[in-house]
Amino acid sequence: MRTPNAADAGGIDRLIAERRSKLAAIRARGVDPFPTAYPGREEIGAVREANEPLAADESSEEAVRVAGRITGRRGQGKVVFMDLADRSGKIQLWASIDRLDEERLAALSDLDLGDIIGAEGPVTRTRRGELSVAVDDFTLLSKTLRPPPDKHHGLKDPELRYARRYLDLMANDDARTLFITRAKAISAVRRYLDDRGFVEVETPVLQPLYGGAAARPFVTHHNTLDRNFYLRIATELYLKRCIIGGLERVYELGKDFRNEGVSFKHNPEFTMLETYEAYADYRDVMDMLEEMVRAAAAEATGSASVPWGEEEIDFGARWKRLPFAEALTEESGIDIRERTDEDDLRQAMRDAGYEAGDTTIWPKLVDSLLTQALEPRLIQPTILYDYPLSLSPFAKRTPDDPEMTERFEAFAGGMEIANAFTELNDPDDQRARFEMAAQELAAGDDEAQPHDEDFLIALEHGMPPTGGLGLGIDRLAMLLTNRASIREVVLFPARRD
After folding, report:
1. Which of 41, 64, 137, 346 sits CB 3.0–4.6 Å from 356 for a disulfide?
2. Percent of the chain, pLDDT > 70?
3. What distance in Å separates the CA atoms of residue 493 and residue 305, rounded to the nearest whole number?
4. Closest by Cα among 118, 111, 123 to 137
5. How confident is the model over 120-154, as pLDDT tens digits?
6. Quick check: helix, strand or coil at residue 387?
7. Model confidence at 436: pLDDT above 90
């Protein structure tokens, strides 16, 4: 992997040697190059905002203390200018022999790009109109031993950006903005749920039995207990236990893990929001999802309408709602309600030009047809509802058709972002679903839901009618930041060496 600043290993070694030499000289002068704190520091953004009214050659009455990383340097001799940046912004440091003695000015001039310093002095606007801190004193807070990415060329190599995200954050303002936007969206989601009486809970990441989704798990071993555990693929079955216990409105926002392929919308570990509300059904959840995403978009980006490539996604408008089977038939020309035989559906898909594996079972053929024919076209927020029973092991049957379930998926930007059910609360029906999944496991489907007797025992204690939701936070972040790959919105995505 190439370093961002040096043409070869020898070049980077030379730069490191020069910086280590400076570090030794600093220590020889009795200066601690890594002090413990810098009290009284103000964020640069706040300093700029407070002093924006200053006119040219005008200075603030009181000194400020700012701290950050040196990102630029100009001048020499009796006047030195530096750019100092923290997460809130950037400001110029103006150091002159008139305010610092010759020795201190030389020490400041000898610092390197990337060094972290604190600076103190009044804020002034130069004759050229640049808001600056006139440096009366400075403190080295961290001497850096490696050069930062080149500020003009930035950090372009995607693999380097993912592997050394700290360099990406250091070099690219857009990267810092992206992850701040993501954090704002998560805060907005939490606030929305908290304000509506939901209780945030934590459930096990290490589980004796995985479940709540169709996925292959990661397996690990607990040495003391001498047994295998699974990294959770979903929080669903534990959150339902909370509903059974009487918490009535619960949510969890955390990591799930699925041992699946990596793509532009898949990462082996991902952030998921799951909510469960007693005495609600999937239509209540539809309304809640629309409101929550609209609120998150507005708080994170300032608008409920966000750019997506060359288009605009409007989360503020009423989301389109379509019956799943009808929408799929209209787009693909294949009616899955008539093609209930696996081989028949497979042949129909191939005749229509869609891929269909020789051994793929009927539910996965339907899911594949959705992925190929319809999902990429759902750019504006769209809800598809009422799914076949075999695709929905935890959803309640629709009253008018026992082969369909009260389930919906939400799409935007051509990908699924949420999945929701009127939750199955009939323990006998749930047992039958587990038995159906056991047959799929025996037939070789390694993503089928295993039998969970403990959950059935919990369900036999009675669960009220419940609406449940799973919302992919990473995909939501993709939409809100106009990124086409999940790796862009995960700080440290999984990658091959």
Report:
1. 346
2. 97
3. 27
4. 118
5. 999 999 999 999 999 999 999 999 999 998 765 66
6. strand
7. no
Cβ atoms of 231 and 206 within 8 Å: the answer is yes
* CATH number of the domain where residue 68 is located: 2.40.50.140
DSSP state at residue 274: E
Ramachandran assignment for 11, one of left (phi > 0), alpha (psi -120 to 50 degrees), beta (any other): alpha
How is residue 347 written in tokens?
Answer: 């042949």
- Is residue 360 in a domain? no
Q: Which residues contact 230 (CB under 8 A, 6 or more apart)?
A: 206, 207, 208, 209, 210, 217, 218, 219, 220
Q: Where are the alpha helices (DSSP H) in 210-281?
A: 236-245
User: Pick from 107, 73, 68, 108: which is nearest to 90 by CA?
Assistant: 68
Host domain of residue 263: 170-319+380-489
Strand ranges (E), 77-147: 79-86, 89-96, 116-125, 131-134, 137-142
| Cα 167 to Cα 151: distance, rounded to the nearest angstrom | 11
- 393-435 pLDDT, tens digit per residue, is 889 999 999 999 999 999 999 999 999 999 999 999 999 999 9
Q: What are phi and psi of 264, to 5 degrees?
A: -65, -20
Same domain membership, residue 247 and residue 101 = no
